[in-house]
Amino acid sequence: MNKSIRQLLYMLLLAFALIYTIYTLYLNLFLDPGAADFLIHKTEENRPQNIPLWLNIMYIHVIAACLAMVSGALNFSSYLLRRYRRWHRVNGYLYIFAVLIVDLTSGYLAPYATGSKITSIPFNLVNIAWLWITITALVQIKRGNLFRHRRWMVRSYVFCFTNMFIHGISLIGQHLLGMEYRLSYICGVYGAIVVNIVIAEFINRTLFRHPVAMTRLTTEPNK
Ligand code: HEM
Q: Which atom of ligand 1 is nearest to the CA of 127?
């Protein structure tokens, strides 16, 4: 693919990640810090017993998720990778740390998930899969395989959009298909997982189809 189209697509991703991060932080920490709009849909069975604790864990979850989204987007910059390799590495570990925090907090949130076991099971499976995929990306670069590292990072990074797809699919279910909230949310959770996987494979088979020329990177300074 043409270099300028790649650069344009990357700038769009970065802009989107930044705007979505600001929106998510504003919505969950300032506009609706009590998550009233979300908790209203929970039944007795799914309602957390300790709401203040649930909220605090949710804040940590959201902040770590936003950190993963931004640091992940920055690490797809080939410009930053070429010029500031050490920074890419540090930022990469920051991304893994953020994924770990999202996973741990999600482990607490999952048992109270709207939809009960039907959604808490896929949430927990994503927890395991996301960490495994991210660690695989790290193992690949430790083995010096840049091509596979990038492909596994794409598979990992798409999971940063899980919440966006859950709510997007849920909204379509409610407003276009007339579903009640709970069913639309369940469809959102399963749909988001499928969409994440499909998008990652699409990107890997189009944008990242060819191996990266290692020489292009190794000739650049390692700042
Ligand atoms: C990385 C981007 C993510 C963001 C911005 C995000 C954000 C949020 C937010 C704001 C909530 C509170 C409820 C809501 O408004 O949806 C939430 C709940 C939750 N998230 Fe995430 N999340 C992300 C990724 C993930 C991932 C990858 C998982 C699974 C491994 C996950 C698991 C959960 C669970 C289990 C809940 C509780 C759901 C419920 O009570 O029904 N999140 N997330």
A: 30
